[in-house]
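Q: Structure for this?
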Amino acid sequence: DAKTTQPTSMDCAEGRAANLPCNHSTISGNEYVYWYRQIHSQGPQYIIHGLKNNETNEMASLIITEDRKSSTLILPHATLRDTAVYYCIVRPYNNNDMRFGAGTRLTVKP
Amino acid sequence: DSGVTQTPKHLITATGQRVTLRCSPRSGDLSVYWYQQSLDQGLQFLIQYYNGEERAKGNILERFSAQQFPDLHSELNLSSLELGDSALYFCASSVGQHSGANVLTFGAGSRLTVL
């Protein structure tokens, strides 16, 4: 399984875009990139996922490099409620065990 | 409210005891996943069931067991409890059996404290 590397922590100013990077240089062709987040002690929440094309939904955008070795999650206008731990996960589409790493602790500041 | 219901929310017990955590998945979801989150271990995948059958097993101790019932609710049984079992236990559910192909919806968790 591909391993992911994320910064331990990041800060972002409220109202600005938050760009969270993730390196997954050993990603295989059948593996997708998933992003979940966990707001303090709550259950994790799905954000977005993608294979090779950029994806956008009401929560965020996912930018995957052409070689698929890294990706960036973009929260376009961060709010204080976006303060959370963000997990980047690389798994095959048909896997049964979504496994979480250490993630990036994003702090949105006023 | 995510639609995934976990009970109890909090549980305090002593070492050596046995507890059962319960999870009711979102309506229509057939898969249930259990995760353990302790301060020093992060979020650890334990086990997954799909429509009553075990589909994947992670770092689940032999002292722990789980099952999914015909009405699709699931129970996680923790026995011979140790101090290190103190953690948040999360249940998640999804429509299909593949966690990659389906969004996982998590419950609010059950906080277990072993004294």
